[in-house]
Write a structure and sequence with these properties.
By secondary structure, this protein is of the alpha/beta class. It folds into two domains: 113 residues, 3-Layer(aba) Sandwich (Rossmann fold); 91 residues, Rossmann fold, CATH 3.40.50.1100.
């Protein structure tokens, strides 16, 4: 697929029946404190409680029927796993979610509540990837990666489309960065809809791996 604004708009139409159009809220007190007009796109009100419902739903509903019947798999310690499990349930296909053994119990229960099979592994990135690869080899399931997937990125970008439809004169968007899927979709959508807008990636000061990677030019 070509990842562009039409792809993100197509993703929005595809997932519209299965997600919330989340509200944009404001705060006069924060406006006064910052000296700016701030708008908050509240994806905490999204299905499964996070924006990840968008990307996982788009990726799973983009699969052809033959591929979908073999099921989907991913590795996740929480929200992406729940998003994949929910989307798979909506489509009526199997989901296999690899989770670290130290995952929060509430996250495990959320994944299980959607009927997914949970496979536990050691709490390392290598163990997650290896275990997930084994599950895929055994089941024929399709990997739905949390960010290295164009359909996931397109789905995440739908939040920015809604944001700019609701607040079309935004001049700056601050977007959290983890794996980069939300940031990639947000930047593409925002810059396509409003070329002069600035998009800034943000992360905690004491967990600034993306900033370090950016400065050093390597992951």
């Amino acid at each position: 697929m070509t990842l562009d604004l039409p792809a993100i708009r197509a993703a929005h139409e595809r997932i519209r029946p299965y997600i919330h159009r989340t509200p944009v809220l404001t705060s006069s007190r924060l406006n006064q404190a910052s000296g700016a007009s701030l708008f908050f796109k509240c994806e905490n009100f999204q299905k499964i409680g996070a924006f990840k419902a968008r990307g996982a739903t788009n990726a799973i509903f983009s699969l052809d029927d033959a591929t979908a019947r073999r099921g989907v798999a991913t590795h996740s310690s929480g929200n992406h796993g729940a998003a994949v499990a929910r989307a798979a349930k909506l489509r009526g296909i199997p989901a296999h979610i690899v989770m670290p053994s130290n995952s929060a119990k509430v996250k495990i229960r959320a994944v299980e509540s959607y009927g997914a099979r949970v496979v536990f592994c050691e709490p390392t990135e290598q163990a997650r990837e290896t275990t997930c690869a084994d599950v895929i080899a055994q089941t024929g399931a399709t990997l739905i990666h949390s960010f290295e997937n164009l359909d996931v990125i397109a789905g995440q970008g739908t939040a920015a489309v809604e944001f700019l439809e609701d607040v079309p004169d935004l001049d700056l968007v601050m977007c959290p960065i983890g794996g980069g899927g939300l940031l990639a979709g947000t930047a593409l959508a925002a810059k396509s809809m409003r070329p002069n807008i600035k998009v800034i990636a943000v992360e905690p000061e004491n967990a600034d791996d993306a900033a370090q990677s950016f400065r050093e030019g390597r992951v």
